[in-house]
Amino acid sequence: MTVRIATWNINSITARLPKFLEWLESAKPDVVCLQELKCSTDAFPYDPVKALGYETAAHGTGRWNGVAVVSRIGLDDVVRGLPGQPGYLGEGAMLEVVEPRAVAATCGPVRVWSVYVPNGREVGHPHFTYKLEWLAALRTAVRDDAAGARPFAVLGDFNVAPTDDDVWDPSLFEGATHVTPAEREALAALRAEGLVDVVPRPLKYDHPYTYWDYRQLAFPKNNGMRIDLAYGNEPLAGAVSDSYVDREARKGKGASDHAPVVVDLEL
């Protein structure tokens, strides 16, 4: 059985809906993990996605976050939010908010988590501490699935570049988030639960970045970062037949600032 899974920070499903539907028809993924929906759960465009044969488990509040799993091979055992997920007490807020940054589902033979890791803002900021706490909660949440016999993957926008090779100019990121030892150690701790990067180097090009800023011609210059990742357990990693970053989906007016990451499995 061939299964194609993907992850894509869509940067507003409402704004990118025509591009997303076009991509579903052309790339034909079986499962897509989406991040940064920027819509509430109820406002997700279920009907046009369903018309192409896909079910959706969405989790959002209408702000800048929100995640979803979109599948045409089944959608069972949905979990919205990480068990034990920390909340964030924003500036001026009276109560901690548990943000919609994770959703899991079983899609046919595969179980997936779609995750949107907090940005961290800047080193030393409370949001940076929140980011590390969130990654620790993710590690706990995936432990049992990662150790199981069922193919399992956690995919999404991790807001961490695993190595210096995953940013176009490491010198520009000194002292900034996304590249700190603490963030990379948190990713390494997650992988230590039995997960591996299933989009290894080299691909068809030297630098398979997944995110490029809209400003300063970052995409044409390939001034990017690889922060959208796919980590799978041994049963899933052993079934990978191909993987790629779909740079074509980043091109053109009105595109997301991220490209989809696609993984093909032979199960």
Primary descriptors:
single chain; 267 residues; alpha+beta; Deoxyribonuclease I, Chain A; six-stranded mixed beta sheet; 6 helices; 14 strands; 23% helix; globular
Question: If you had to describe this structure to a student in words, what would you say it looks like?
Answer:
The protein has a single domain, classed as Deoxyribonuclease I, Chain A. The strands form three sheets. The protein has a six-stranded mixed β-sheet with strand order 3-4-2-1-14-13. Strands 5-6-7-8-12-9 form a six-stranded mixed β-sheet. A two-stranded antiparallel sheet has the order 10-11. A hairpin with a 2-residue loop joins β6 and β7. The chain contains six helices and 14 strands. It has 267 residues and is an alpha+beta fold.
CA-based gyration radius = 17 Å
Strand count, sense and barrel status of the largest sheet are: 6 strands, mixed
- Percent of residues in helices comes to 10-25%
Number of DSSP-assigned strands: 14
Give unreliable regions as ranges.
none
From the N-terminal CA to the C-terminal CA, the straight-line distance is 5 Å
Can you name the CATH architecture? 4-Layer Sandwich
Q: Classify the beta-strand content into a percent band.
A: 25-35%
Q: Mean pLDDT, nearest integer?
A: 94
Shape: globular
CATH class: Alpha Beta
Give helix and strand order, one letter per element, not per position: EHEHEEEEEHEHEEHEEHEE
Task: Count the DSSP helices.
Answer: 6
As laid out across the biggest beta sheet, the strand order is: 3-4-2-1-14-13
Number of domains: 1
Structural class by secondary-structure content: alpha+beta
The CATH superfamily label reads Endonuclease/exonuclease/phosphatase
CATH topology: Deoxyribonuclease I, Chain A
